[in-house]
Write a structure and sequence with these properties.
The protein has 5 helices and 11 strands. It has about 240 residues and is an alpha+beta fold. Strands 5, 6, 7, 8, 9, 10 and 11 form a 7-stranded mixed beta sheet that branches. Keywords: Cell projection, Cilium, Flagellum. This is Flagellar biosynthesis protein FlgA.
């Protein structure tokens, strides 16, 4: 009887010791994982709201894995070209909800300009608010044509019909599809529209607008505004 009791006690002690060792092991593994770091995107300096983020404004900074959340950005490519919705603190991890890529409002260096009809030669029918477009000038003084603004793509603030209504597909709005990241719906929404484009507003810097006005005010040169596929393919 004593031998059985001794054997039972030994077994229980061995099991308890094994569980204790396993618990210590799990705790150590968790501590090691907590000490591992993940690179996240942070501002180099304070960034105000409404600023378009450039590569030189941000950097990667390691944070402990235990402090990481799924809302943090881990790639510089995710942040470049986005606009801040609220101020961003120096060296603080940038959360996804604090920035927005669909910046239809002008940034701190821009204003929204409505293109005078007499300045326009053609406007692509597929353009919608929030799209990126390429601007060309045709009929310059030397009789040629060229692309404006050093290969830069311009953000469209709005496109209106002759009834002063935003041109879109009311049943499948392009902007809603863009926010949802549904490229198929974004493409489909351009096949049907509630009107033809009569007015187009672009977000431009002062120098960009003055360049357009200088070229087109003589009524010889006119603008060609072309839809860029980057509006759909890159989700911008």
């Amino acid at each position: 009887m004593n031998r059985r009791r001794s054997l039972l006690i030994a077994v229980v002690a061995a099991v308890t010791a094994a569980m204790l060792v396993y618990g210590v092991y799990v705790l150590q593994v968790n501590q090691v994982e907590m000490q591992q770091t993940i690179p996240v995107v942070v501002p180099k300096d304070f960034i105000r709201a409404g600023v378009l983020i450039r590569e030189d404004m941000v950097e990667l900074r390691p944070v402990q894995k235990g402090s990481y959340t799924s809302g943090m950005l881990t790639s510089l490519n995710e942040i470049i070209g986005q606009e801040t919705l609220i101020p961003l603190g120096t060296k603080e991890p940038i959360l996804k909800w604090k920035v927005n890529r669909y910046h239809m409002l002008p940034n701190e260096r821009q204003a929204t300009f409505q293109m005078p009809k007499e300045y326009l030669l053609s406007v692509s029918n597929g353009i919608r608010a929030g799209d990126r477009v390429r601007v060309y000038v045709s009929g310059t003084e030397d009789g040629g044509s060229r692309r404006l603004f050093e290969e830069k793509e311009i953000t469209v603030a709005s496109v209106k019909s002759s009834a002063n209504v935003e041109v879109d597909n009311p049943k499948n709005p392009n902007l809603l599809s863009k926010v949802e990241g549904d490229k198929e719906k974004m493409y489909a929404s351009r096949l049907e529209a509630n009107g033809a484009i009569d007015q187009i507003n672009l977000n431009l810097t002062e120098n960009e607008w003055l360049e357009i006005d200088r070229l087109c005010s003589s009524k010889k040169a006119k603008l060609v505004i072309a839809f860029s596929s980057s509006s759909i393919l890159t989700g911008e």
